[in-house]
């Protein structure tokens, strides 16, 4: 258990750390400005938690966290007339939010908390010291504070040492911390992903013991942490922590469920390891920053394999239609985690489509197949390109190069057809009004069937002339007995 060191001066910093704090104040003069307002009113104000950690890591963002001995009503009084905007959605927990010059500031009254350990919601009472406030933080690296405008450093739990060692420890006993708030176990995995930190052995052991406590946390909060983990700099190490400690069994059971399911395309790896590799390779292909949909699709593209695993005559393992089963499983899991409908459908569709390329073999892509590939993918096509390329994890260099050339050829075919046709908006050559006029139909299901038939013809044969489209429609209507 970590306890505050009362013998060490709280403000003693190395030269590098002093420079880091000075740089923090340089890029965020707003901190000193608001600090002077509080000091003039006889109150303390500290930059605290993740803001201090990120400043020392050189990754400070636009959101700044502060704590103070002033109560929320006094905070509102001090920021009114200074802040450009104020919000009070968290005021029942002692937090006032303000914005100033593009920065978002959250100012929270010193707090102490007690938990019933039945839910995650604490009983909050206001504290009197910054040390008491820091004692309730999740990890020691988040339990540091810098006073403003004085710039004195407070670090009662050796967060600086942990920061230097890239280590995660809790301020108190890990079991107490995680029983108070089980979400902190997921936050540990998130910080591993985002910051590359390593949890201390006692933290890992505690998560293993208490993994089932995460069931107390709402699906929405679990989703928020999983998203931050997946969007981190190295989500694979965070995901491994979830699986190794048993947390994944509670929040994303399909992930550990892929272990030991042999992938017929790479028999030296199980599907779990293959999926983590695909995730890494998909991240390498990102062009405009982290892409949640692509990362989730890469991680989950093969979750249907355990349910479809079959041993064929001769001993070969098959996973027929695992993309169909996998898409259904993705929808079920992401809905349970309260992901948006848009994200859920995008990830599921990518999982459904990720094998389409392999179904055509080498050099067998007809114009019709290319049109359908583009039409089925729609706006997901750029992500599908990345997912398919990432799904090659073979150690056979020649095979990998051949697959890459084959996909290069497909993309070239798409480019050529795009130059000739509007592939991104494939529609029938006759619209609904023209169909009704030609066949003498009223609006209804038959018009939709005719429209779908003409679209299928368009996908198979490319653009038709008006006369050919009318002839095709008449032939179809005759076969359907329409107009007899």
Topology:
Elements: H1 15-27, H2 29-40, E1 45-48, H3 50-56, E2 63-68, H4 72-79, E3 85-87, E4 95-100, E5 103-109, E6 111-114, E7 123-126, H5 130-134, E8 145-147, E9 153-154, H6 159-165, E10 167-168, H7 174-180, H8 183-195, E11 198-199, H9 201-210, H10 219-230, H11 235-245, H12 247-251, H13 271-284, H14 292-300, H15 305-308, E12 310-311, E13 317-318, H16 322-336, H17 341-353, H18 367-377, H19 381-390, H20 397-420, H21 432-439, H22 445-461, H23 466-480
Can you tell me about this structure?
The chain is of the alpha+beta class. Among the domains are: 15-166, 2-Layer Sandwich (Beta Polymerase, domain 2); 301-426, no CATH class; 427-480. Helices cover 52% and strands 10% of the residues. It has 23 helices and 13 strands. It has helices at 15-27, 29-40, 50-56, 72-79, 130-134, 159-165, 174-180, 183-195, 201-210, 219-230, 235-245, 247-251, 271-284, 292-300, 305-308, 322-336, 341-353, 367-377, 381-390, 397-420, 432-439, 445-461, 466-480, and strands at 45-48, 63-68, 85-87, 95-100, 103-109, 111-114, 123-126, 145-147, 153-154, 167-168, 198-199, 310-311, 317-318. A 7-stranded mixed sheet has the order 3-4-5-2-1-8-9. A hairpin with a 5-residue loop joins strand 12 and strand 13. Helix 16 (322-336) packs antiparallel against helix 17 (341-353). The longest helix has 24 residues, at 397-420. It is elongated and about 90 Å long. Keywords: Coiled coil, Magnesium, Metal-binding, Nucleotide-binding, Nucleotidyltransferase, Transferase, tRNA processing. Residues 271-410 form the HD domain. It comes from Fodinicola feengrottensis. Pfam families: HD, PolyA_pol, PolyA_pol_RNAbd. InterPro entries: Bact_CCA-adding_enz_type3_sf, HD/PDEase_dom, HD_domain, HDIG_dom, NT_sf, PolA_pol_head_dom, PolyA_RNA-bd, tRNA_adenylyltransferase.
